[in-house]
Design goal:
About 40% of the residues lie in helices and about 20% in strands. By secondary structure, it is α+β, with helices and mostly antiparallel strands. The longest helix is centred in the last third of the chain and has 18 residues.
Length: about 90
């Protein structure tokens, strides 16, 4: 059974909104990227630093991974990678 497009869009938005503001404190960085949302906090625990993938475009995902990886390497923090329902596609599985 194919996923309901409206429900998937609402789940994507909810996931990005919740984790996009989770643990934001002074010195945090919250950046909306094509098909993703990247959050860095000065708290060195993966729960507070995340990349939420919300798109299926392989080029956008690659760009997001590159941008996030650069910040992760610079800040030296662990990151939790979160996949929204729409991001789980053949492009992500590949």
């Amino acid at each position: 059974m194919p996923p309901d497009a409206d429900l998937t869009a609402r789940m994507d938005a909810s996931l990005a909104a919740y984790w996009g503001s989770y643990g934001l404190a002074e010195g945090s960085l919250s950046r909306q990227l094509p098909g993703a949302h990247f959050v860095y906090t000065p708290i060195p625990l993966y729960l507070f630093n995340s990349v939420v993938l919300t798109g299926q475009d392989p080029a956008a995902i690659d760009a997001t991974l590159g941008a996030a990886a650069a910040c992760i390497a610079e800040k030296r923090v662990p990151v939790l990678w979160r996949l929204s329902p729409s991001a789980v596609s053949e492009a992500v599985r590949a």
